[in-house]
Design goal:
328 residues; mainly alpha; two-stranded antiparallel sheet; 4 strands
Length: 328
């Protein structure tokens, strides 16, 4: 009996100490925590987790996924089915692009539901993906804008400052972060988008360019089980494409974008989730937002575009002056 009493008392004591240590840890986390809290900034919220850890996408991956073509093409179509007579050849460049677009769409002998390449004529997605990187780094607590100061500098003239150089776990993000940290004096957001895109006349700054961004992002999505890799023949050349394998993830992404301006519209950008708000703006800047709105009914499409126009017509300089606004 005595030994049983000692065992039970010891068990109670161990439980008491365990509860005390757990309470102390909770209190420490509530007071500001340590490196664990810094790491948690990188984790998306519950709404962003998806089905598993592997399907958590960055803003760059989400924008690229929205831009990938996934239109069904008739396998029996041939080059002869292109109706050249419908093009009057007025405005040569425009009509040439339309004809080539049809050639690319129907000449592949292995055309599937998921073509797996971005539009050949989208010249916005390159700079849009670089903007995604800057926003992603800011959301993860790595970057911020310099203080506006007494003279109230505009957002476009404020420099990008490295807030933390802790690795993000993403190769592209870490590469961009390394460039930003090592550059003195700091550059503005617009300058960084141009430098990371390679759009500079200064040969001494060409090393800032991030190369093969779309291909590297597509490989990330392949590793996460969203895309696969194939070789497709486009009449005169072979090209690596990345058809969709997990359609549920893309449909969930499209639904999230649609609901942001329809069912879950709050009519106030300050009340919207920051990551979702950034995704909508970046998708528009990358010229892929139309892909998310295309499946909507006419009434829904008109309402979605109207509300998107409301967001685009807002003045960022005015919005950042409002109370409880995070300028960083």
């Amino acid at each position: 009996m005595t030994s049983l009493t000692q065992r039970s008392s010891g068990l109670v004591q161990r439980r008491t100490e365990a509860s005390r240590s757990a309470a102390a840890a909770d209190k420490e986390r509530g007071a500001g925590g340590g490196p664990e809290d810094e790491g948690r900034r990188d984790e998306p919220g519950d709404d962003e987790k998806g089905d598993s850890k592997e399907t958590r996408l960055t803003l760059m991956e989400e924008v690229l996924l929205l831009g990938l073509k996934d239109r069904e093409v008739d396998r029996t179509a041939s080059f002869a089915e292109i109706d050249i007579s419908m093009y009057p050849f007025k405005g040569y460049l425009r009509n040439e692009s339309e004809i080539l677009s049809q050639i690319f769409q129907i000449s592949s002998p292995c055309s599937d539901l998921s073509q797996g390449y971005t539009s050949f004529w989208n010249d916005c997605i390159s700079s849009g993906l670089r903007g995604c990187m800057l926003i992603e780094l800011a959301l993860r607590g790595r970057l911020q804008l310099e203080a506006c100061g007494m003279r109230r500098k505009s957002l476009l003239t404020r420099k990008v400052i490295c807030k933390s150089d802790a690795p993000t776990g993403d190769v592209l993000l870490d590469e961009a972060l390394k460039h930003i940290k090592e550059t003195q004096p700091p550059e503005t957001v617009q300058n960084w988008i141009e430098l990371l895109s390679g759009e500079t006349w200064n040969p001494l700054k060409l090393h800032y360019q991030l190369r093969n961004v779309r291909e590297r992002l597509a490989k990330n999505l392949v590793e996460k089980g969203v895309l696969t890799t194939e070789k497709q023949n486009f009449l005169l050349f072979d090209m690596t494409t990345h058809p969709l394998t997990n359609n549920n993830i893309k449909q969930r992404l499209i639904k999230k974008v649609q609901e942001a301006v329809l069912d879950k519209w709050v009519n106030d950008p300050h009340r919207m989730d920051k990551r979702l708000l950034a995704l909508v703006y970046l998708a528009h800047a990358s010229d892929v937002l139309e892909n998310a709105f295309a499946p909507l009914l006419d009434e829904q499409y008109d309402l979605a575009t109207k509300r998107m126009r409301q967001l685009l017509d807002l003045d960022p300089e005015v919005e950042c002056m409002k109370a409880n606004t995070n300028e960083g």
